[in-house]
Each structure stands twice: as structure tokens, then as C-alpha cells.
Amino acid sequence: MAFGENSTMELAMPANTLINAAAEGDYAWVTNATGNNSSNELSFLESPCFDFSGLTNPVLKAMVQYETTQLTTNFFVSYTIDGGATWDTINAGLASTNWYGTDMLGFVTWSGSSEGWIQVSTDVPELAGQADVKLRFVFDNGDFAIGETEGVAIDMINISDCTNLPTSSFTYTVDGSTVNFSNESENGTSYEWNFGDN
Fold it and tell me: What CATH architecture does domain 2-161 belong to?
């Protein structure tokens, strides 16, 4: 469900200059499919209620595209577990891809230009085991946006339980003053060796 103040969020066929196609298929959620978003726009794309009580490691993935004013516009995802009485921002988890807040400024959101569709994902451990979860994408054009922008687009939202958690393991052999280590870790995509001695 889309709503907000001065909202142009709609399920439509994107036909703008930069946001000109869905990530998959014909339709995506987009702010004004054929023009610029409204000034002072605050749009919400809100999910129905989900039961995460059986999930141990929820992961949220989506395809997003944004063409907004850098720093003065906010585009992020929030959640509620109390029927909408309070909403909290979903920050980048330990296993995130293209999620906002993964750089030195942990409070920033998506803004500027994504330069096309990008896949974003993050683990959301704070939602594990929760029985009453709602999610919403928030687009806040702000009071100080400079110039006109096309806004944001959202497609292919996916929530899953990551059960193939990485496990770290290694073996070693000693041959005189030489020690050989062998990586036996599972389900990892990157590895870092740290022996604590620089």
C-alpha cells in the first residue's frame, strides 16, 4: 500500500528519462512513472503484516533505483513490531549488500544516483522470531531539495530465512618453524585471516 504527503508513489510502468523500466517485468513501485517527484514529498510503500516467528535469520532483498538530491533526500526502509505505534530504521546488518549506512557515516540513507537498478540486501536479526512485522520503504524529498528529480523505484522485494550461516574452521600442520593453515570454513563468501600480530 502506498500513501504519504504529496505522494506520487504508484505501481506503474516506469517511463521516465532515467527510471525508464522495471527491474523485472513491466511494473514497479515508482514515484511518478512519467515525471519528477513532488517537492516536499513524503511517500511510504508499506507491506502487509508478516509473521517472522519461525525465522531465525531474516534477510531482506530488493531491487531499487533512485535519482534524488544528494544528502538532502532520504530513502530508507523501516519496520514496526507493535502494529505501527513505533517505527525503526533498518540499518545495515553484518551481511549487507549496497545497503545504506555501510560506510563511515552509519546514519546516511540512499541518496544521489544509483545509476540504474541495484540489488540491495541486509540481514535483519532484530526481526527474528517476531510475530507482527510490517516493513515500509520511505522516500522523504525533504524541505531543501535542490532541483527536480525523478525520485525512486522499488521492485522484486524478497524476504527469506538464511539458514546456511557461515561457520569458521581451519586446520594446521607444523613442519619445523613453518606452520601451514588450511581453511575448512563453510558457507562463506569472503575470508580474513587475523593472527593478532599485524
Answer: Sandwich (2.60)
